[in-house]
Design goal:
The complex is a heterodimer of chains A (about 150) and B (about 90). Chain A is an alpha/beta fold and about 150 residues long. Helices cover about 45% and strands about 25% of the residues of chain A. In chain A, strand 2 and strand 3 form a beta hairpin. In chain A, helix 2 crosses helix 3 and helix 5 packs antiparallel against helix 6. Helices cover about 35% and strands about 25% of the residues of chain B. In chain B, strands 1-4-2-3 form a 4-stranded antiparallel β-sheet. Chain B starts with a strand and ends in a 7-residue tail after the last helix. Classes of the chains: A alpha/beta (about 150), B alpha+beta (about 90).
Chain lengths: ~150, ~90
């Protein structure tokens, strides 16, 4: 699965500036709501917060993959955010986080979810990719990095 | 002396080796003085890397081989085996 197909250009946000876990999750839910017309932002935020309560989605190396399940969703909505500074996110390696790849996923479809996670992990294990997305100065540049590394 | 211990385990939980399960496994792996590697098919991942573990795409019903080397190898294998067998402490 290509990351640039999973994440659309209007869901790629470079050099944003949020100072807390809650604020960044609010922003993610706001963006996701715009992609899911029948949803409301509150439900999406609740799903994301509930998942964080089970354990941080900070997966180390300054990266987090906040995600939540939403019933009735027809396909995954994915968002990439690069924050200008790393913020505390309770990651398991205790490192602050500045790269966020967020997913709103349909209920069930567990195998598909694992495939989506693997597609994301495949890019995020690439140090050059991580460096380039952190350097992107605007949204379009960030999206172009996704496209470039898909090809 | 370097000890090497290995065994295979069935992924039993419904969600497979998803992000939370992978994180719990990585946290557990980091507690041992051992090099821990998970194998599934032709893919392998260090036990303490969440990203690498996600790349295994281990879903329910898959078998993974866990290989541990180092002073705590035996304890590490036991703990990780238990975690997988106990469905990563998940309800289903």
């Amino acid at each position: 699965m290509k990351l640039s197909e999973l994440i659309s250009e209007d869901c790629s946000k470079a050099a944003v500036l949020f100072n807390s876990k809650k604020r960044i999750l609010q922003y993610i839910s706001e963006l996701a709501q715009q992609k899911i017309p029948d949803s409301n932002q509150h439900d999406i935020l609740e799903a994301l917060l509930n998942r964080e309560k089970l354990g941080s989605t900070g997966i180390g190396k300054g990266i987090a993959i906040p995600h939540g399940r939403l019933s009735g969703l027809s396909k995954v909505v994915a968002i990439i955010l690069v924050n200008q500074q790393a913020i505390p996110f309770d990651a398991y390696d205790d490192r602050d986080v500045d790269v966020f790849v967020a997913l709103i996923v349909p209920d069930g479809e567990n195998k598909q979810h694992l495939e989506t996670l693997a597609s994301i992990a495949d890019k995020l294990t690439n140090k050059v990719f991580c460096k380039r997305i952190r350097q992107a100065e605007n949204d379009s540049e960030l999206y172009q990095v996704l496209v470039e590394f898909d090809n | 002396m370097t000890q090497k211990w290995e065994d295979t385990f069935l992924i039993r939980n419904k969600l497979g080796l998803h992000a939370r399960a992978a994180t719990v496994l990585a946290q557990l792996s980091a507690q041992f003085n051992a090099q821990i590697t998970l194998y599934q098919g032709e893919k392998s991942a260090p036990g303490d890397s969440v990203l690498a573990l996600l790349l295994l795409e281990s879903s329910q019903g898959k078998t993974v081989r866990v290989e541990c080397t180092g002073p705590d190898a035996q304890g590490a294998l036991l703990a990780i085996g238990n975690l997988i067998e106990e469905k990563f402490h998940e309800a289903e």
